[in-house]
Automatic annotation (TrEMBL):
Residues the record marks as active site: 50 (proton donor)
Annotated Gene3D superfamilies: NADP-dependent oxidoreductase domain
Sorted UniProt keywords: NADP, Oxidoreductase
GO molecular function per UniProt: oxidoreductase activity, acting on the CH-OH group of donors, NAD or NADP as acceptor
Entry similarity comment: Belongs to the aldo/keto reductase family.
Positions bound to substrate: 112
Residue ranges of every copy of the NADP-dependent oxidoreductase domain listed in the record: 15-265
Site (Lowers pKa of active site Tyr): residue numbering on this chain: 79
Record-given protein name: Aldo/keto reductase
One Pfam family matching this protein: Aldo_ket_red
Length: 280
């Protein structure tokens, strides 16, 4: 199986990356990012609101050196938080993220949530388009967009988002949104894919794991990538970081997919994008 997805603009992104939410600045995060890169990860996901871009940047620098690779081999994502929304403030926030990361570009910059003020996310998107058209960022996308947000954004956008990072788990399989995005050639990416561990003790997932001689986390990761969904499981544990990338030596069966698809209950662990404004 290909280990990257190709965007509508021809650029590629690794299917499996490392998430960094809820890990504070500090040595643990530096080591996790470095370990991921040395273990073969080429994609790292952070955000301004995670308050950890400095350590992610340090981990990247140490990882590049230890793995003997170059910056251009990596795919780094960060995101624009809601309180930086607006045209000028988005441009400033991007530069501030680069400064904290110690990078001169990122590979993907996302609107973190649509928020509830439509004009503000339009203005912010225009800023991302400017960064993209000026060659300051390689790709631009969104996160937590529902179909109604896309319908409106696509009316005003001159650059179409390459990706939408959303909650996607066996309990919330987002079929309608994924079908809509496929039609528009927008890639899907899942956040909290392991439901912070909750899904790993589901009996169906555990049985499929046992059958394949794989871990429950590897089953969920494989289910994502076989559904063309990019995935960024978070771990600071070296063995788990390695385990989560070791998913290219087996395949789920049609029956496995059927059983996992039956788990859908349209149940979220995070906020609903329809009315989330960053505070509620
Ligand atoms: N765009 C958004 O709005 C949004 C929202 C939430 C998250 N995200 C992104 O998505 C990433 C992933 O989501 P998440 O961090 O919320 O949670 P997650 O990846 O679903 O789960 C992380 C938890 O699972 C554990 N874990 C990881 N690999 C494991 C394995 N192989 N076996 C057993 N346990 C394992 C980790 O423990 P240890 O670390 O202790 O090993 C951690 O407690 C985030 O880090 C962030 O980058 C984006």
């Amino acid at each position: 199986m290909e280990q990257v997805v190709t965007f509508h603009n021809g650029n590629t992104m690794p299917k499996v990356g490392l998430g960094t939410f809820r890990v504070e600045e500090g040595q643990q995060l530096v080591e996790a990012v470095k370990h991921a890169i040395v273990s073969g990860y080429r994609s790292i996901d952070t955000a301004r609101i995670y308050d950890n871009e400095k350590s992610v940047g340090e981990g990247i620098r140490q990882g590049i050196e230890a793995a003997g690779i170059s910056r251009s081999d990596l795919f780094i994502t960060t995101k624009l938080w809601l309180d930086d929304f607006g045209y000028e403030s988005a441009l400033e926030a991007y530069q501030a993220s680069l400064d904290r990361l110690g990078l001169d570009y990122v590979d993907l910059y996302l609107l973190h949530w649509p928020g509830t003020d439509e004009q503000l996310y339009f203005d912010s998107w225009k800023a991302l388009e400017k960064l993209y058209n000026d060659g300051k960022v390689r790709n631009i996308g969104v996160s937590n967009f529902a179909i109604q947000h896309f319908e409106r954004l696509l009316e005003v956008a001159s650059v179409k988002p390459v990706i939408n990072q959303v909650e996607f788990t066996p309990y919330l399989n987002q079929k309608e949104l994924r079908d809509y995005m496929k039609e528009k050639f927008i890639v899907a990416e899942s956040w909290s894919p392991l439901m912070n561990g909750e899904i790993l003790t589901n009996e169906v997932v555990m049985n499929i794991a046992e059958k394949h001689g794989k871990s429950p986390a590897q089953i969920i990761i494989r289910w994502n990538i076989e559904n063309d969904v990019v995935i960024i499981p978070k771990s600071v544990t070296p063995e788990r970081i390695e385990e989560n990338l070791n998913v290219y030596d087996f395949e789920l069966t049609k029956e496995d997919h059927y059983e996992l698809d039956q788990l859908n209950e349209d149940r979220r662990v995070g906020p609903d994008p329809a009315d989330y404004n960053g505070n509620n």
